[in-house]
């Protein structure tokens, strides 16, 4: 790369212009000398480093907090921790701003006015909150309707969520509704082909060629720091060849900017493209014959004559080229590069924690991976082993609970469902009171109101629930619609035992002790609240722990019982553990549960770095014990679904600093949304110059983006970074809650959706909406306004 | 001699901006609000500069380059300072003496890399945000120019620690906050004059280049271009 | 961009002119208002250094616990005082006051007399342990005071520079300024 002086000055000077020139200098000089310019003396104190685990996202990075006296002044990665490796992303770095955020909740808040605004809430005591909630729960149990208590919770990785789930079980409700949208499609693809309910863990570090079909894995991987570290090694390691990355997507994202090649593709054609590449690989005989013949079914038999026949009949290169907009030559070249690479890897379109992908895309990608023999191979798609903490002993359900647990789930999800949780169906159920009325709704570690594709209905549905209880540090959107907001401690003030996301291929357990000895406010961990409710309702038999701290201790005891793995350590330590376990030995360096606890507090975590590649009985659990190419689904994809006409295709994405609907509350993160643009603190819409000309939209103008039922206003960004005929809008701003720096800043493009679903999987459809775009008049500036 | 230098591997860099926030937290940089950001007055000592390549109408390429102070060996900024508030020390770190700075901004104009920042307003930390301030770094008043110091205060601490342990400073003892945080492990830091240090070895490799080398500023931030390593480590 | 440039030039000349005026004004204000005079400090207890250091032979680090291990020296709090004064040791009124404060668990906060500007990096550990500089060198004969002085000799940059030059230590700005 060569950057000429002229070009350089031109590009960087724009940002600096405001700082270097203009303004009233005279006033500044006099201010500099006035008494208002008193220096600030941050108090000093002894320095300490406390190990913890970051909860700014579910990634589970081990961190190290620097404490000066009783203040936390910096958070860094824990160098020994296998997920963070001593590194940390923007969100983790900004954790201090969240800890000391001026709008953090200090006491429990009870709603006395209309829903949707913090001004409707009044401070209350913990005793009042617990008494009111417990009395409501008690009368529900007296009426023998325990199923009417509902829990919406984030991914099951931290100890508070586990306590909440335990409470629900003991109480007798089946309605434990996980909200983990980002990984549903991938997990489903894995389940349909391999019979395993888990999130695929692509081995980026081990690959030497990555074909990313719109995967934003450098921004919104489930564990971003882990993925970035793996990517660094994929590019430049000391021993291997440099890996090549090809990004195929309608948008030149930050991940695409890092790629060696960006291949623009029409929206909604990722699955088609993947099957086109698969067809070329099969046609040229480049697929992995050993895996296909020994370990798979459905390639040459089954519905539609098997995958081979379907690929031949329906995915000719000409068809794929015509529909995807990528030339035959490029498809063929990609197919040859992928199949010819020593360790090629295909990544599915993963756009962020709130944006579930399409099953079709993920399935097509996984089938392509299987064709090149990538299942459970180094540099391929792995499945993390379960964390070896034994399940909590059966608490013993009383008759009321047993009967309640037998009721159907209120969101319609059953053991045979494709989804693990369905908050849109929940909204309908809450509104209609079918299959039954919900009386209490707990929301833990989730902001479903922001993330839902049916905002209006969801907000109205919350009004139908007599008691909504939300847990928050800074009140999120859902919390503003609750009856009680219970203040949680920040993760730097809490105990925790957290497992790594399933996208990391080895089991990891991180232990956090409170980095701040004394919490800043009168907060309680959600786990402690549920333990208290359990005691008040006489459910101690199922949840006998005093508090989250003692439960954490007990969890580590159970981990000790597993008798495998090791305390996290250096790379050398890891290699040693791997070698020993490979030979059937276990030499942990701790001899009791108490010693393990002590060493975990000192080192931050435990892991088992040993991965047994090709343990087929573990990773292929279909009835046949083989990888199923699912020709039945492939033929459905071949039929294609009609792409709606009119308007522009709406493409949603999540920039890392505000991914998952969190982050906008921190000014550090608001100021760095996309390094390629000047837009900060506002939502923008990317439009190709060709499309913009046709629509008479000017760069930087405010534009109205309208779907069939709602409109938002965003700033137009005319750029070649997006293909014609589409508009790309980031998700993460346009919050109702989130404190002074998030409220009413930008717009939430999820409001444009109307609850549409992908037909086969019933996953929410984030990709097929069409929108009309026009420059707006000033009176139309209120984002999110109903039309 | 010691010459502190940074190497940034653009092939590893993912433009995630972790370095930007790590720097802001480490160095007590006040959060910019909406209007500061809109006027380009937000302060960051390191940022990601975008370069769009490719002709109009063809497929664009976007290069995002982390841009800290280059700590030039011949810094144009120190020469124009009328009050001697900015200077290069004997180990090559270009420092800023805020007590002396009068805010004339000659240096921001002289700097060809545009990495110096002027403090337009008194830093504001709504309570209790000031609790998170580091005592190692001063809080700059309104009306002075500030810049990347290679986290010079960390050198003081590292050197103190080495002295207490009665040993010389080792490669890796002193790392700026950005280097320490980089998730893709794309940033390296050390002594360019120590031939065994990681930065010296990387800087001698075939991928190494410096920004605007033709100006003769001799930057001590060395970039590694994308592409095959050619055995540079 | 070009517009701003053209507009910028007169602005800069204005800035220089304004700067020159303000600089002189600032200097004048500084001397007149006594900006550079030592400020006076009140303490919660009239601590008698001589009694502790000379009569009872206590070392400085008994109360200033951190100067050998940290950048700062540390001021005693109620915990440290209570190791001896949870019960009265003598008959002074100040001590009685202290014992009462400890009994009532009221916070005891001494105020720092020596305060380095926030833009200075200074390490007690480095100066005391590594360079073996005695406390009196900067703090004067504090150990002989019987009641807290309301003000002390103000250390100036020249004091630092003088010592640094004498000891052949770096006098570059970045050595101390940050």
Rounded average pLDDT of chain C:
78
Overall shape of chain C: it is: globular
User: Helical percent range of chain B?
Assistant: 10-25%
**CATH architecture title of chain B:** 2-Layer Sandwich
Main β-sheet description of chain B? 4 strands, mixed
Q: What structural category arises from helix and sheet content of chain B? A: alpha+beta
**CATH C-level name of chain B:** Alpha Beta
Low-confidence stretches of chain C: 1-10, 29-38
What is the domain total for the residues of chain B?
1
Rg of chain B, Å, rounded? 18 Å
Net shape of chain B: globular
Helical content of chain C (DSSP H or I, runs of 4+): 40-55%
Strand line-up across the major sheet of chain B: 8-1-10-9
The share of residues in extended strands of chain B comes to 15-25%
Please describe what this structure looks like.
The complex is a heterotrimer of chains A (787), B (233) and C (178). Chain A has 28 helices and 28 strands. Chain A is an alpha/beta fold. Among the domains of chain A are: 109-181 and 390-491 and 522-556, Rossmann fold; 200-383 and 623-637, Dimethylsulfoxide Reductase, domain 2 (3-Layer(aba) Sandwich), CATH 3.40.228; 641-780, Barwin-like endoglucanases (Beta Barrel). Chain A starts with a helix and ends in a 12-residue tail after the last strand. The relative contact order of chain A is 0.15. Chain B is globular and about 50 Å long. Chain C is an all-alpha fold and 178 residues long. Chain C folds into two domains: 1-37; 49-75 and 110-176, no CATH class. Chain C has helices spanning 2-33, 49-55, 78-85, 93-103, 124-130, 136-139, 157-166, 173-176. At the A-C interface, helix 1 and helix 2 of A face helix 1 of C.
């Amino acid at each position: 790369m060569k950057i000429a002086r002229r070009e350089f000055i031109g590009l960087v000077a724009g940002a600096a212009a405001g700082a270097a020139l203009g303004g009233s200098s005279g006033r500044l000089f006099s201010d500099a000398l006035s008494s208002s310019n008193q220096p600030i003396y941050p108090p000093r104190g002894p320095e300490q480093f406390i190990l913890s685990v970051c909860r700014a996202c579910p990634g589970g990075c081990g961190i190290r907090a620097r404490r000066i006296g009783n203040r936390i002044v910096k958070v860094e990665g824990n160098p020994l921790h296998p997920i963070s490796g001593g590194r940390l992303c923007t969100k983790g770095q900004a954790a201090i701003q969240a800890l000391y955020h001026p709008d953090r909740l200090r006491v429990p808040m009870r709603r006395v006015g209309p829903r949707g605004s913090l001004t409707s809430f009044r401070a209350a005591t913990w005793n009042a909150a617990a008494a009111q909630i417990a009395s409501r729960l008690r009368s529900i149990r007296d009426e023998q309707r325990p199923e009417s208590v509902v829990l919406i919770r984030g991914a099951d990785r931290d100890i508070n969520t586990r306590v909440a789930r335990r409470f629900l079980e003991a109480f007798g409700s089946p309605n434990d509704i996980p909200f983990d949208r980002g990984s549903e499609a991938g997990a489903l693809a894995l389940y349909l082909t391999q019979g395993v309910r888990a999130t695929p863990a692509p081995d980026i570090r081990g690959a030497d060629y990555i074909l990313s079909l719109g995967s934003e894995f450098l921004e919104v991987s489930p564990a971003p720091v882990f993925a970035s570290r793996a990517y660094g090694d994929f590019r430049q390691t000391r021993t291997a060849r440099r890996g090549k990355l090809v990004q195929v997507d309608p948008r030149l994202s930050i991940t695409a900017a890092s790629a060696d090649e960006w291949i623009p593709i029409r929206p909604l054609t990722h699955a088609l493209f993947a099957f086109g590449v698969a067809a070329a690989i099969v046609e040229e005989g480049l697929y992995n014959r050993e895996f296909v013949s020994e370990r798979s079914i459905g390639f040459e038999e089954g519905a539609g004559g098997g995958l081979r026949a379907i690929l031949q009949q329906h995915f000719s290169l000409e068809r794929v080229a015509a529909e995807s907009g990528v030339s035959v030559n490029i498809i063929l070249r990609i197919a040859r590069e992928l199949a010819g690479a020593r360790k090629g890897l295909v990544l599915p379109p993963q756009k962020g924690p709130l944006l579930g992908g399409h099953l079709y895309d993920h399935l097509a990608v996984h089938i392509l991976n299987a064709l090149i023999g990538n299942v459970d191979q180094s540099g391929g798609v792995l499945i993390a082993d379960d964390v070896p903490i034994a399940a909590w002993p059966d608490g013993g359900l009383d008759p009321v609970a047993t009967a309640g647990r037998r009721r159907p789930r209120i969101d319609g999800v059953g053991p045979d469902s494709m989804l693990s949780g369905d908050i849109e169906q929940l909204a309908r159920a809450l509104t209609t009171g079918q299959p039954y009325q919900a009386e209490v709704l707990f929301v833990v570690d989730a902001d479903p109101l922001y993330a839902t594709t049916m905002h209006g209905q969801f907000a109205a549905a919350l009004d139908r629930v007599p008691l909504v209880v939300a847990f928050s540090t800074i009140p999120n959107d859902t919390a503003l619609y609750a009856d009680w907001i219970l203040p949680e401690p920040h993760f730097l003030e809490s105990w925790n035992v957290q497992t790594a996301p399933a996208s990391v291929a080895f089991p990891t357990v991180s232990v956090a002790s409170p980095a701040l000895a004394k919490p800043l406010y009168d907060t309680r961990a959600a786990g402690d609240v549920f333990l208290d409710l359990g005691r008040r309702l006489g459910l101690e038999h199922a949840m006998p722990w005093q508090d989250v701290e003692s439960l954490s201790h007990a969890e580590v005891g159970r981990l000790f019982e597993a008798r495998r793995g090791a305390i996290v350590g250096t790379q050398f330590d890891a290699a040693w553990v791997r070698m020993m376990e490979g030979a059937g030995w276990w030499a942990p360096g701790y001899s009791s549960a108490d010693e393990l606890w002590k060493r975990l507090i000192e080192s931050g975590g435990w892991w088992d770095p040993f991965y047994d590649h090709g343990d087929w009985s573990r990773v292929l659990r279909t009835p046949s014990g083989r990888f199923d190419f699912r020709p039945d689904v492939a033929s459905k994809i071949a039929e294609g679904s009609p792409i709606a006409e009119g308007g522009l295709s709406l493409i949603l994405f999540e920039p890392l600093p505000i991914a998952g609907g969190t982050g906008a509350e921190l000014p550090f993160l608001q100021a760095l949304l996309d390094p390629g643009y000047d837009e900060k603190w506002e939502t923008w819409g990317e439009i190709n110059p060709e499309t913009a000309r046709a629509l008479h939209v000017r760069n930087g103008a405010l534009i109205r983006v309208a779907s069939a039922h709602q409109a938002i206003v965003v700033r137009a960004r005319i750029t070649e970074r997006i293909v014609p005929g589409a508009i790309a809008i980031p998700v993460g701003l346009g919050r109702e809650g989130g404190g002074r720096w998030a409220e009413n800043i930008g717009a939430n493009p999820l409001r444009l959706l109307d609850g549409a679903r992908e037909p086969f999987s019933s996953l929410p459809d984030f990709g097929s909406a069409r929108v009309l775009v026009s420059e707006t008049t000033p009176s139309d500036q209120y984002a999110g306004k109903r039309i | 001699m010691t010459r502190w230098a940074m190497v940034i591997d653009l092939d590893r860099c993912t433009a995630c901006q972790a370095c930007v926030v790590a720097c802001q937290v480490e160095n007590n940089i006040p959060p910019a609000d909406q209007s500061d950001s809109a006027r380009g007055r937000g302060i960051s000592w390191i940022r990601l500069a975008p370069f769009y390549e490719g002709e109009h109408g063809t497929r664009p390429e976007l290069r995002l380059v982390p841009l800290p102070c280059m700590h030039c060996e011949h810094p144009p900024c120190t020469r124009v300072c009328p009050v001697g508030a900015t200077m290069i020390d004997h180990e090559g770190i270009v420092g800023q003496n805020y007590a002396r700075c009068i805010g004339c901004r000659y240096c921001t104009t002289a700097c060809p890399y545009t990495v110096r920042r002027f403090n337009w307003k008194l830093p504001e930390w709504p309570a209790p945000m000031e609790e998170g301030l580091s005592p190692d770094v001063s809080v700059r008043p309104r009306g002075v120019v500030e810049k990347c110091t290679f986290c010079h205060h960390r050198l003081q601490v590292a050197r103190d620690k080495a002295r207490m342990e009665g040993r010389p400073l080792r490669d890796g003892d002193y790392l700026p906050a950005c280097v320490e945080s980089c998730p893709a492990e794309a940033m390296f830091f050390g002594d360019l004059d120590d031939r065994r240090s990681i930065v010296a070895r990387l800087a001698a490799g075939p991928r190494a280049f410096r920004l605007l080398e033709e100006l003769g500023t001799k930057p001590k931030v060395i970039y590694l271009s994308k592409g095959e390593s050619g055995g540079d480590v | 961009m070009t517009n701003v440039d053209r507009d910028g030039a007169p602005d800069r000349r204005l800035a220089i002119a304004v700067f020159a005026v303000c600089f002189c004004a600032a200097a004048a204000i500084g001397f007149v208002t006594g900006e550079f005079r030592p400020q006076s400090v009140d303490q919660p207890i009239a601590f008698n250094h001589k009694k502790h250091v000379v009569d009872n032979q206590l070392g400085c680090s008994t109360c200033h616990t951190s100067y050998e291990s940290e950048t700062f020296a540390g001021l005693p709090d109620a915990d440290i005082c209570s190791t001896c004064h949870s019960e009265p040791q003598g008959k002074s009124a100040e001590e009685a006051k202290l014992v009462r404060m400890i009994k009532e668990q009221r916070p005891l906060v001494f105020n720092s007399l020596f305060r380095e500007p926030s833009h200075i990096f200074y390490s007690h550990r480095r100066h005391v342990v590594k360079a073996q500089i005695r406390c009196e060198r900067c703090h004067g004969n504090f150990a002989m005071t019987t009641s807290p002085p309301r003000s002390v000799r103000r250390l100036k940059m020249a004091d630092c520079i003088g010592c640094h030059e004498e000891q052949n230590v770096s006098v570059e700005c970045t050595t101390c300024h940050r």
